[in-house]
């Protein structure tokens, strides 16, 4: 009994007293993709200019070599890894998806276990069943020391992959309850759409699928669904992170608020306007969207305390993200820049708790 108690105490203090490479100035980045070799070979799309698809796939799999060397060279203190899109959200069968999520999470925990000074993880979750997702989130956070979850937009489902599950529906309240009980953030990352959306909506314009247009269009709709369906009213402490400078949402709040307010008398269940949730529940990161004037505009709309730096490696280069953020000393005070690079992330990810 006494031995068990001591063991439990050791495990608990291991999880809570996180030791990470806090230089006081380096960045913390957390829209950073990783995958197993089996998943990496299925990743297509357009690599960064001058890079090949083979390099991209190798960079997804690598953690301790090239990736870490770039982090050292360009001043990244700590990186949170997550499974490249669509990952589990692209698996329609619920049992296969749930089993694969557990495998991937164990695999990632093992992989980074010898360097938790530099690496943390977000859980991959099967979202077919809110209760299964909640239990796996709890396991990864309490037993593996994960910092939250990253969901690749909607969960595809059904025998023909054509049932799309959005987490703004009441059956997901059980999941959001666990998220808020654990007090961890959930990152919403875009995914490639299922057929027939791909061909019906993007078939006419080669290149519009993916990050140029499809990602922001599809994911921003899911985020607004969380607002309009009252998820943040039911879970006021819920923290959701949206990458790529908020998938354009904070660029268009005037029109979104004005038009949604017209729907309130028609019965949409949200209790506040959309922009107000950016002050209490939603955060954005700069991942893959290194645009200084846009950052300044978003600062004026939602405040710098809702914005955190990230890179989107290996789809964006570590050098590019780091050189950009370090150039912001021209437009931000030293204190603001430190908050953007690390301060807000330390609190949201609870690195020092
Ligand atoms: C801590 O991070 C910096 C980059 O910000 C790196 O240069 C340094 O080597 C790291 N220290 C350890 C012990 O990993
Ligand atoms: C962690 O293990 C990997 C794989 O064996 C190795 O390449 C890496 O150097 C190790 N890192 C540390 C900090 O020991
Ligand atoms: C979800 O999973 C739980 C626990 O495994 C199970 O009891 C429940 O029936 C499942 N719900 C659905 C809709 O399949
Ligand atoms: C979460 O996991 C912990 C540790 O396994 C367990 O004690 C706790 O009951 C779980 N919480 C819920 C709500 O299932
Ligand atoms: C949105 O709500 C906030 C209060 O929560 C209010 O200050 C603001 O004026 C509202 N914006 C619009 C466009 O209605």
Automatic annotation (TrEMBL):
Signal peptide extent: 1-17
* Record-linked Pfam families: Amidohydro_2
GO cellular-component terms in the record?
Answer: cytosol
The Gene Ontology terms for molecular function here are: carboxy-lyase activity; hydrolase activity
For this UniProt record, give its keywords in alphabetical order, as a comma-separated list.
Decarboxylase, Hydrolase, Lyase, Signal
InterPro entries, alphabetized:
ACMSD (IPR032465), Amidohydro-rel (IPR006680), Metal_Hydrolase (IPR032466)
Residue ranges of every copy of the Amidohydrolase-related domain listed in the record:
61-351
Keyword presence, Hydrolase:
yes
What's a GO biological-process term for it? Answer: secondary metabolic process
Entry's family note: Belongs to the metallo-dependent hydrolases superfamily.
Please report the name of this protein according to its UniProt entry. Amidohydrolase 2
